[in-house]
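Please review the protein record below. Let me know how this chain folds according to its tokens.
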Amino acid sequence: MNVEAKQSTQPHLFARQPHSVLERISFWAFLVGGLAGLAGTLAIAIASGALSRDLVITTVSTLASAIILAIGFRWSPLVSALLGGYNLYLVSVEPYVVESLIHPKTDPQGGFAHFVGVVIITAIAIIAFGGSVGAAVQNYRQGNWQSRQAPRWLPAALSLVVGLVMGAIFIGAITQETVAAGTTYTNGVPTVHMGAGSFLQTSVTITKGSKLMLLDDVAALHILDNGSWQNGTPKTASESGAPRVNNLQINGGSTEIGPFSVAGTYHIYCAVHQGMNLTIIVQ
């Protein structure tokens, strides 16, 4: 009789159960994070002219996690924890996120406000993942699956995340970034840095006979051609005296263009990111 009673209290695979405190926290974290990710994806697509694959995947999986938790199956927190861990990985390698963390004040995607948003969204992702892991452990470790109280460590964990967010924002606010004036050089070669969706300077002046190094700071894909964006439309151009740049792909690292043997003004653009233009003045 006791064995039968114990067996009857165990839920079947698709049995729904009341949401624990950790599940509710994770649900709201995933929902807020997913909606914020959707807004960020649309904003970046409008600004750069291209969707970020990692941001799209992160947004979809985040919203899916919220839906799975809302259904309330016993295994829902386990699935959402797996998705939440994958989301954290995508956030850590997303070029727009990395660029904002490296340049909290000079990030071309929105400066310090974008940095604050990135820090908050990252904290929400951590809360969603941690809450899902804790809820999954509760569901599968406690003898009585219907009794899942808020753990004693929850207030301390939330306080730690809030403290980290405030500390990161404070450090970002007091950081003094040095903006290079004029042309910078790498081993004697004039260098232009590229961010997630832009050249970090829109023009560069070099001497005749020099090469130009393009350095991708955050491992974002760029496809470069001769020409420029004009009124939202890419215009490929064959400029007399300019080194040929045709479908040149860079995804991290650096590349050299040239030498520029003829004095003049030349243009290079990125076909992936709308408005990403570079003017090269050769003297």
